[in-house]
Every structure is written in structure tokens, then in C-alpha cells.
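Study this one:
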Amino acid sequence: MVDVTVRTSQGSLPLRLDRAKAPCTAQSFVHLARHRFYDRTVCHRLTAYPTLKVLQCGDPTGTGEGGPGYKYKDELPVDLPPAPSDPTGVRRLYGRGLLAMANAGPDTNGSQFFVVYGDSALRPNYTVFGTVGAAGLQTLDKIAAGGIEPTAQDPAPVDGTPMLRTELLSVRPSCRH
């Protein structure tokens, strides 16, 4: 396990990375954090769909298109329970407090990740590599309660930029023994 101290402009977001479940993902995240890649980046996406409640961060451009300049293979979860809201059994429950990689398709992991603030039903196509601590859940609840920025096209969006600007001020790993 690796504990990561994340200071955001909205509060703390302590993470615990699980090297046993996703060794490459945890190593990449630690590498990027040690090189201060995540410092001063914004969490660019908040979703509030009934079946998808996540905050997405880790893009140095803040657009959802950026990354570290490399990609690596998925380490897909095999132990997630079926999502109760999916009668087909295809989607899995990404429960509140999970930490997972965002991607643009198979084996396209980079630096973008998401934290789950409310139980979500997703295909098991996203590497789960850790959890969010209790203080982080409070921070996530605060950000989610702030809502999503309205646009001219959508005055009540369920996916978009968080109203409460959330900047990752510093991301620092510390190995536990």
C-alpha cells in the first residue's frame, strides 16, 4: 500500500494506492506524483448521472485531452460486484470511495483518474487502484454539492466542469511498511 497526501483547493483528498491490485498503475501514479506532475492541475470533470458520480482529475491541460506523454496497459478489476441497477449484469459497481483510472479505450491509461463520490455502474473497463480516505469523501461531497457549471446549451448539466474550482495543490506519496 502507498498512502498519498493530496491537498486540493477544496480540502484534503487522502488516497491509498493498492499495489497488489494494480502494480503498474500504482507505480505510474507514484512516479508522476514524485515528479510533481499533478501539482497545480485542476479537476476538470464532475458527473452527476444517476449511475455515474465521479470527479475526474489528472489532466495537465484541464481539458480532458491531456496526459503524461505515455500510455500503459489496463489492470482491470475482477472482484467488483454486479451493479444492482443493471439487470444485464454487464456493468459493475464502482462503489463510493474507489479510485480508478480514466481512459479513452483499452490500454490508454495515462495520468487521468477519477474518484467515485457515489456508487456508480460502469463496465469493468477502468483500472481500480486504490481508495479515498474519509476526509476525502467529505471533500468530494462538498465539490459534488457545488454542482456543475451551466452552459448556454445546457442550463442544468449532469456532466461538466465543477462549479467549485478544484485544484490539486500538491500530491505527495509516502510508502507504508
